[in-house]
Amino acid sequence: MTDSSSDSATVDPGPTGVVGVIVNPVAGKDVRRLSTGATHTPDTTKMGIVRRVVAAAAESGATRLLLADDPHRLARRAIERLDLPDRVDVVLLSDHVSGSRRDTITAATEMRERGANAVVVLGGDGTCRDAATGWPDLPLIAISTGTNNVYPAALDGTSAGVAAGLVASGAVPFDRVAQPTKRIVVRIARDGDEPIEDVALVDLALVDARFVGARAVKEPTSVVQVIAAIGESSSTGLSAIAGRTHPVDRHTKGGVTITLAAADHVDDGIARRVRVPLSPGTFDTMDVADVRPIDDHEPVELIGPGVLAFDGERDLPIAPGVVAVAHIERTGPMLIDVAKTVALGAFHEAFDVPLDDDPVHAGAATGHDDVDIWAADTGTHHQRTADHDDTANEGTDDAR
């Protein structure tokens, strides 16, 4: 293993086979786990996931692994005594460690500079946002280990590592398995100064507060307005307000903006009253004044005073009368579909090993036509070659 602190001036020109791994040691450990049913993800669990990701990526074609170091030394400890092939180079990115969100931001930026072809991130919505701040359209596999997890998914580390290795090695074409995701871009003009710009991947909220304080938004009556790029019906957190009033998934155009009734409201100002899981296992009644779908690039104003919360975490105070203008655009991370990637790898026989009497029959070099086995919208399997049409159709009919 190489420590990048010894050669930090070196920048890779972008070799193939490079996989990055970022683990947030504090994800899933915020104050919400003390007052709600939020799941605690211990360090041992995170190290186990990292170990499986690394082993599987090396098995599936990765030739270089970039591991982001962290104050808890999770990445270092995860790969101790891990027997990797000699062809695999492991580089520990250790120059950026500060114990803050800057660690993830800087690690993602360095992975882009070093030519990472896929980046596996362990954390919650906030960790994914930080990674996207450092590399806006990073090729991402997001594994859920946080408190509220709308953007990342509960993925097995082995499968995630296999997918990362297949994409990084070129065994599975990146553009066949990755889709651009949305992000919310907010801009605040300032007299005489450069404007402030920031992003969220799931939701942006204006909260009735004067200071950031504890970053998690826990008080339902403090929420003034929410813009959601993702608001699935199964979501938990601020985006669940959208999920319970006007659901929108990560791949559909645009999103929704929701105005909440004031805490000292009169009933005449309430259009809907909705039960929402703002934290895992905890439900609150939200008084909704207005729900409005919005298109991509449609501007939405959030007017201070208050604190802007990005993906459920309070982060940026704005003074009375200050206007933040936000819009949704499809310039976020390129999210890699793990299941589809592994299925394509199987189709192209990327997991095969040579037979004693058939040395050509190995890996992806099988000579099959490059036919998409997944229909664009349905995920239905197609036949591999024209010669197999009848057999494949019979098999499909039998399966039905």
CATH architecture of the largest domain: 3-Layer(aba) Sandwich
CATH topology of the largest domain: Rossmann fold
> Could you say how many structural domains there are in total?
2
CATH class of the largest domain, named: Alpha Beta
Largest sheet: number of strands, sense, barrel closure = 8 strands, mixed
Give the DSSP E fraction (strand runs of 2 or more residues): 25-35%
Mean pLDDT, to the nearest integer, reads 84
Distance between the termini: 50 Å
Helix content: 10-25%
Principal-axis shape = elongated
Task: Please trace the helix and strand order, writing H or E for each element.
Answer: EEHHEHEHEHEHHEEEEEHEEEEEEEEHH
Question: Based on DSSP secondary structure assignment, what is the total number of beta strands?
Answer: 19
Give keywords.
single chain; 400 residues; alpha/beta; Rossmann fold; Tumour Suppressor Smad4; eight-stranded mixed sheet; 23% helix; 28% strand; elongated
